[in-house]
Amino acid sequence: MLNSLHAELASTRLFAGVSFDAIERLLEHCRVVEVPADTVLLDPAVPNEHLYVLLDGQVDVHLTTLSQPYYMRLGAGECVGEMSMIEARETSAYVMVSSRSRMLVLTRDTMWSLINASHALARNMLVTLSGRVRQGNDAVRDSIHRQSEFESLAFVDGLTGLHNRRWLDQAFRRQLERGLLDGKPLSILMIDIDHFKRFNDTHGHVSGDRSLRAVALALNDNLRPGDLLARYGGEEFAVLLPDTGAPQAVAIAERLRRAVAEPKAPLAADLPGLSISLGDTQMRPGDTLERMLERADTALYKAKSAGRNRVCSA
Ligand SMILES: Nc1nc2c(ncn2[C@@H]2O[C@H](COP(=O)(O)OP(=O)(O)OP(=O)(O)O)[C@@H](O)[C@H]2O)c(=O)[nH]1
């Protein structure tokens, strides 16, 4: 019986390469148990008194609650409960038996006796613990990565893929502060699609969305790498042109207007074309983002009143 157990243990992480002569007597104190599926083996709220070496079956590790998906699934050859055994503390996770399992159960005393009796087992324990630390680090890194993905998603407009108003508020403000310090010129354009309500009413919202994306792409394709573009809201866009004075800003605005009115490769080729109106303004001493946006908006309103599909300056 013991010899067949040795054979099984020899293929586990904890007992790999361990000479059983030195520990045979200690193993006699251990139990091999069968545990049905859905048994909660470890629970952070319940003190743990055992280390389990999985001989057969499968257990799931859940980090926060058992109702959350498992974080890690462990099979034959793995062990659980070693950290709480060594530290004599509560377990750091839940462990639930996910399919009927056979396990060798060690008490804390037996575990320490085994570690004292076998260098190989002590080394295996170190390697196991180091693996747990690495898994912990990986989990932290993944969660930081996911968090930064969520944060960057919070700055992106879902329909057009452009940056959104929240991003604009920060990025434009930062750039304006830099401009005020450097004393270099800086311009802002406000852009609005012409008669977009009529377009939606005539062709439907789905076509409206496609055209909105096509306009966003045309704007993006016709700006320089350092220019900042955002969807301001609805069918309105805003552009910040760093290091750009009035004549150049008007030329860029004109290039954007043409790119939409006379697209080279229209994305929504099956839909009627659209035009945009633009208002531009330049940074003045002591300017604020709000004042610049307001002036650009007033200029845009002039462009609309003057017949649309044109650029007007503040
Ligand atoms: N399809 C679609 N339509 C939108 C979206 N956001 C805003 N709109 C529509 O854009 C239209 C804007 O209408 P208005 O503000 O009256 O302006 P307009 O019809 O473009 O007229 P002018 O600006 O004066 O040329 C509204 O009908 C909105 O519903 C969007 O994400 N998708």
UniProtKB/TrEMBL annotation:
GGDEF domain boundaries: 184-314
CDD domains: CAP_ED, GGDEF
InterPro entries attached to this UniProt entry: cNMP-bd_dom (IPR000595), cNMP-bd_dom_sf (IPR018490), Diguanylate_Cyclase (IPR050469), GGDEF_dom (IPR000160), Nucleotide_cyclase (IPR029787), Rev_trsase/Diguanyl_cyclase (IPR043128), RmlC-like_jellyroll (IPR014710)
MF terms in GO: diguanylate cyclase activity
Protein name (Swiss-Prot/TrEMBL): diguanylate cyclase
GO cellular component: plasma membrane
Domain of life: Bacteria
Gene source species: Pseudoduganella namucuonensis
Biological process per Gene Ontology, one example term: cell adhesion involved in single-species biofilm formation
EC code(s) of this entry: 2.7.7.65
PROSITE patterns per the UniProt record, alphabetical: CNMP_BINDING_3 (PS50042), GGDEF (PS50887)
Residue stretches making up the Cyclic nucleotide-binding domain: 14-132
